[in-house]
Structure formats: structure tokens, C-alpha cells
Amino acid sequence: MSNTARRGTPQVHEKIATLNNQFFGKSGLERAAGAKFADVLDPSTAGVLGEISDLTEAQVDRVVADANSAQKKWNALSALERAEHIHEAARKVRENQRVVAEILSTETGKPFKESFDEVSWAITAMDYYAEIGRHSIGTVHGTATAGQFHYTLKEPMGTAVIILPANYPVVLAMWTGAAALAAGNAIIIKPSEWATLTTLAFAEAFDVLPAGLVQVVPGTAPTSVQLVNHKDTHQISFTGSVPTGKIVAKSCGEQFKPCIIEASGSDPFIVMPSAKLDVAARGAAFAAFINCGQVCTSTEKLIVHNDIYDEFMRLFTGHVAALRQGHPLEKVDVGPMENGRELTRMEGVIARAVEQGATVTLGGGRPTLGDSELANGFFHEPTVVENVTRDMDIYQQEIFGPAVAVYRVSSFDEALDLANGSPFGLGSNLYSTDVVEIDRAVNEIVAGMVWVNAPLLDNDAGPFGGRKMSGIGRQLGAEGLDTFRHTKFMMVDAHSSEQNFWWFPYSDDEAFK
Prior knowledge:
CATH architecture of the largest domain: 3-Layer(aba) Sandwich
Largest sheet: 7 strands, mixed
Strand order of the largest sheet: 14-15-16-13-12-18-19
Distance between the termini: 91 Å
CATH class of the largest domain: Alpha Beta
Strand content: 15-25%
């Protein structure tokens, strides 16, 4: 193992060593018997942290069988018992929070503060769904026929497969996974190859649940295909790119298998003259560069009114220039990108924008960090691109990196038009104190979420999801719970009454005359 991969505590590196080539199955950590398919790199140094292997097809089949067996026992428990088990798992995650957060930072490059926060958000999602999962399992309806009893029941799908990206592997696992468990399902998590060790370390907290109920299956595309197409998996939750999301949705459509797809975003951030510019500038810097810009709800289209453009940009670029960059286990605001492939892709997006007439006014390259061990890391400077127009490729793309494109507008109508012209519709932001602009934004922006003077906040009780090419379905809130439940409608006549108002023989009086 490369010496440049040894930042952090020795205990965490010892823990990482136990996760190499493993999966988390019915018996806990087990050896993945397929071929090794990747070295795990520290994105800050490009040093080798470990390695991951595929499961064999037979192992995946066994995982699915174990999940279905565990699900039947889990669903037979009372809702209160399931809630207590999920709370117990959340307590165990909290005990392991610092270790999981350090592994997450080491494996993905996320600053430790953000990693620690992410594990916290996963815990709150678990505790939230533990409670609302037992709040209501159906509804009594007013009857259409006197003397009957009409009601619905909510029932689990069965075994849910959760396919994860690398940018938020822990919290996204629980936004869907905790809901699925609370609804009475088993879950099989397919982690990103760039966050597999983190996901395995996190999963160990679930050994307090029935064996096989929560499993983690690393692997390449064929493993995902096997899980999506398996006759004994019943629900798919996918977070990732638009092309892969289309493949998953098509496969699910061919099977009539329910799915939730969270694909991509290219969120607008509108700044109007009535905004508190110093607050808006700081908010925009955070929204654009949190997790090195690798957030589906990152600000990628900064839309600024002419009247305050110069002053706002002075404030904004001042905040961006002050961002500290370096190894995520040090005092930094921005770490490296997740991997070299993503770094190269993002550099191409910026180069194409410049080729089409845009101007890089801050950043634009790989930084000099003054630390030789970080020289091979996947770092990119926080970058501001101005003079951008909607006919450029960058307008239609998701940047998904530490860069923001800035658009100058002369009216609120023009700002709304720019915001809604994107093929994506995940989140959106407005900084304004004008009540008319606020009212129009929340009603006219085509997106799943609108943040007004409060960028990128989440709430376990409120739904998360997008429109257009950002995907289908919702996570979080009551909607997120129902994503993992069937609704069954019952009509009961306890008296077994004759229903002569519509049974044979039809009345002669009602025949055609």
C-alpha cells in the first residue's frame, strides 16, 4: 500500500484493511468470491487504500434469497418492534459515527465536517422513519354502500435494491433504505465503486437487525443488472447519471417493477436587487462548492440581475477565493474530486465553455497546494465562469464539480426563463425580499424544490426529488415512505347482504324502453 494513503488515524486504516474484497451479507462481512475489479484510491493523494471484488452470480442469488427470507420475518413483527430495531441501529451508527465519517473523507475526499454531518443526517432519517413507519398503515374510507366497511392497508414491496452514487453514500442509503425498512421491506445496497469501503463500514451497524435484512453488495455493472432484473427483487431505487437512470427505468418498465430514479441536476440560483447581497454571496459560494460541487442540487447556474451584478460578483468571488483547499482530514473547506475520471470530465466541460466564448474569471485549473503528498490528488480550483449564454453546451449540462457558470439578466422574467429552460428540474434557489418575486418563484419555477433565501436545506419530513430529466419519484417525507409500500383496498360486508341494487337478474323497470 502506498505511503501517501496513510493520512488519518491508524485505527481507521486498520478498519479499512478488514473491508477489502468483502461484502456485507447474512453473516456480516464475507469474502466476495468474484474477481477483483478495482483498487480503492485516496483521491487526495492517489495512494491505494484497499481493493474491492465482485460477487459471483451465485453469491448474488444467495443474497437475494436471504433478503426475501429475512423480509418475511421482519414484516411479521409489529410496527412498534420494527421501530425499536431501527432506532437501535441508529444508536449504533451514532457510536460508530466518527470512524465512518473518517473513512468517508478518506475514500471520497469530502471534508471531515461534511462527512460527519452526512452520517448525522442518515441517523435522523433512520429515527424519523422508525416513527412514521408505525404512524399509519392504512385509511378507513366512507363507504359507497351502507353497512359495509371500506379501508386500505399499506404493505411492503418485498426486497428493495438501492443503487448508490459516491457523493453521498451514507445519507442516500438511508433516505431510501430507512423508509424501505420502516415499510417492512428488506434492502440490498449496491454501493458506488468509489465509496464501497465507506458503505461496508456503515452497514456493520445493521447487525442488530435480523440477519439478511440489510446487505451490501459491491460490484460492477453486471451485478447491478442482475439485481435489477432478478425475479425476486421488487423495487429499485437508483441515484446516478441520466444515461444509467434511463437504462434502469427501462428495465424496470419492462418488468412492471416499481422504481425511483434520481438522476441529475443543474440548479439555478437567482439573485435579485432586493436581496441582502452579502448573505446571498456567501450562500451562493456554499451552494456552488459544498462537497467540491459534487452535489445533485449544487448551484451550477448563478443568475444575477444587471443592477447588482458587479457588487454581487465582487462579494461572491471574494468568498470563493477564500475557500481553503487540501486534504479532507485537515482544516479545509473543499477537498479533491472523487476520482480522476470525474476531474478530467469536468475540465472538459470548462474547456468547452471557454471555446464557445465564456470567460474563466477565477480558478480554472489544478491548484498548487504546497504539500508534495497531494501533488497527484484529484484537486481542482473552485472556478467561476462568466459571460455564459444559454446557447453554450454548459447550459444544458450538469457540471458536477467545483465550477459555477454565471448568467447576467435584466429582469425577473428573464431569470425565470433561464431557470426553466434547463433540461433538469431538481432544486432551485432565489435570493430576494420582494414578496411578488418570491410568490412567482415558488409557483413558476419548474423544479421539485424551491429554496428562498435558504439554499440546499433538507428536511426529513419533506419530499426530495425532481422533475424533467432529474428523475421520477420522491425520497423523504410521507411520500418517501409510500414509495416502498403497496396500497391494498378492501371492501367488507360482514353481514353478507344481497346486493340487489345491481345483481342479476336486472329489474325489468331498468331495461331499455
